[in-house]
Every structure is written in C-alpha cells, then in structure tokens.
Design brief:
Elements: H1 3-23, H2 28-59
C-alpha cells in the first residue's frame, strides 16, 4: 500500500470511531422522546387491559 492510501484509511477509521462515540450520548430531546414512548406504551397496555375486562363482562 502506498503512504497516501494508509493515511486515508487511518483518517477514515478515526472519523468512524469519533462518529460512533458521538452517537452514544443522548441529548435532552432523545431522552424526552424515550419518556413519551414509554408513556404511550403504558397507556396502550392499560387500554388493552380495560378492553379485556369489557370483553369478559360481555361474555358473562
């Protein structure tokens, strides 16, 4: 390999490493989005349970 090719590979590798390291940190909007997702999931579970209860009562 030529020196230019080696340097180019090294630079690309470093850029990839820094970009992956930056992705690990969660910003405030991402954290808020996760909270919203959890709240929606919990609400969906409660609606499903309520639907099951209504179904049980109508079957009796």
């Amino acid at each position: 390999m030529t020196l230019i090719r080696k340097v180019l590979l090294l630079v690309c590798g470093l850029m990839l490493a820094f970009s992956l390291a930056a992705c690990e940190k969660k910003g405030p909007l991402e954290k808020a989005g996760e909270k919203v997702d959890k709240a929606i999931e919990k609400a969906g579970e409660k609606v499903e349970k309520a639907g099951d209860k209504v179904k049980e009562k109508t079957e009796k």
